[in-house]
Design goal:
single chain, 297 residues, alpha/beta, 52% helix, binds guanosine-5'-diphosphate, EC 3.6.5.4, nucleotide-binding, GTP binding, 7S RNA binding, signal recognition particle
């Protein structure tokens, strides 16, 4: 289960302070030491851990908490609030264009789950938002990627715009946008090239695609199992091309939590969705508060 170790440790720490009628500064300090270890063990970015501990400590050691009737509960609430804040506070909705089609660029490294997520997102857009999405196969470097998207399109009965591997991604996107207008698609989801590493060519290509038509969303798909690497990838993509949101995949696995807890704070971009499995219906909106509740029990 995701966050298992973190949840276990935090819940253990919390149970010690929960019913206390009196909480001393020493109690808070001890608790914070344990929370700090738990976060570091979950592979949370060190700077994020430090500022989190600082914020929680400052609030928890405040007079109104110490003198309240239920100080233990108050401290737990502060931890929960700050954990929620750390993950973005509010759920962040998809930004749709006033002037259709809405263009969503899907970016990420190979194997992160980008193509699968593109299919899942199209499914969400149709089912929950009543949209008519067009999937665009712009990853020409891995021939199997086009086939994979087409297979997903068939499975979902959704159209996939593909021009093979000989046409440049920029031309594919240009033609796809025209096609979308003709066929009245109100959302265009572009599956771009996933590479093994972030490289100049990949970034330039994304910039060229962006220059054609400013996308309404640029979703970076990252594998939550890769912890802080996911955070570094998010940072690099954000600096190079600019992202508007993150989709964290494989949260159905036993990810420790580092990516989910650090990405928002490091990149200042919201986690919009989480992948909860390989099937086409396994994509959920990310709710920071629910996630914090799940971790804290
Ligand atoms: P891409 O190279 O980034 O396009 O990655 P793919 O979409 O091909 O996905 C790589 C692998 O990860 C595939 O086996 C997917 O089924 C799997 N995958 C993607 N998202 C999830 C997820 O949320 N949970 C699980 N368990 N597997 C996923």
């Amino acid at each position: 289960m995701a966050f298992e170790g973190l949840a276990e440790r935090l819940q253990g720490t919390i149970s010690k302070i929960k019913g206390k009628g009196k909480v001393t500064e020493q109690d808070v300090k001890e608790m914070m030491r344990e929370v700090r270890f738990a976060l570091i063990e979950a592979d949370v970015n060190l700077k994020v851990v430090k500022s989190f501990i600082k914020r929680v400590s400052e609030r928890a050691i405040g007079q109104d908490v110490m003198k309240s009737l239920t100080p233990g509960q108050q401290v737990i609430k502060i931890v929960k609030d700050e954990l929620t804040e750390l993950m973005g506070g509010e759920q962040s909705p998809i930004k749709f264009s006033q002037k259709p089609p809405t263009v969503i660029l899907m970016v990420g490294l190979q194997g992160a789950g980008k193509t699968t997520t593109t299919g899942k997102l199209a499914n969400v857009l149709r089912k929950k938002y009543n949209r008519k999405p067009l999937l665009v196969a712009a990853d020409i470097y891995r021939p199997a990627a086009i086939k994979q998207l087409q297979t997903l399109g068939d499975q979902l009965s959704l159209p996939v715009f593909a021009l093979g591997t000989e046409v440049s991604p920029v031309d594919i996107v240009r033609q796809a946008l025209e096609h979308a207008k003709e066929e009245h698609h109100d959302v265009v989801l572009i599956d771009t090239a996933g590479r093994l590493h972030i490289d100049e060519n990949l970034m330039q290509e994304l910039k060229d695609i962006r220059a054609l038509r400013e996308p309404d969303e640029v979703f970076l798909v990252v594998d939550s199992m890769t912890g802080q690497d996911a955070v570094n990838v998010a940072n690099s993509f954000n600096e190079a091309v600019g992202i508007t949101g993150v989709v964290l995949t494989k949260l159905d696995g036993d990810t420790r939590g580092g990516a989910a807890l650090s990405i928002r704070s490091v990149t200042e971009k919201p986690i919009k969705f989480v992948g909860m499995g390989e099937k086409m219906d396994a994509l959920e909106p990310f709710h920071p508060e629910r996630m914090a509740s799940r971790i804290l029990g």
